[in-house]
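Reopening this one. Same input as before:
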Amino acid sequence: MATILNASIDLTKIPKDAIYVGKKGKYANISITINDEVDQFGNQGPITIAQSKEERDSKAPKTYLGNVNVVWTNGNNVAPVPKDNAQHPGGFQQAPPAKAVADDLPF
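Same output, byte for byte:
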């Protein structure tokens, strides 16, 4: 695990057409952005309804649901999934090996 995030969303802002039924429940695809800077309210990024490529290309307005904060990180980030679908079995990309870190904790 590389990062722990805390987030809150306003469920009333999820458009009904963004909710779809899957095998195990109802879902909505979202996007979480982590910015380099904290905003004026102490948030590190927005949570929005995910947009299609066509929506992004046409600069369609985003539907904002809430905000996110990083509460812990080991200093490494997760690598993005490759766009050529060369994924690790199970749908994820294997993370690079962790770097050794000197442990100066008293326990």
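So the earlier flakiness isn't reproducible anymore. For the record, DSSP finds one helix and six strands in the chain.
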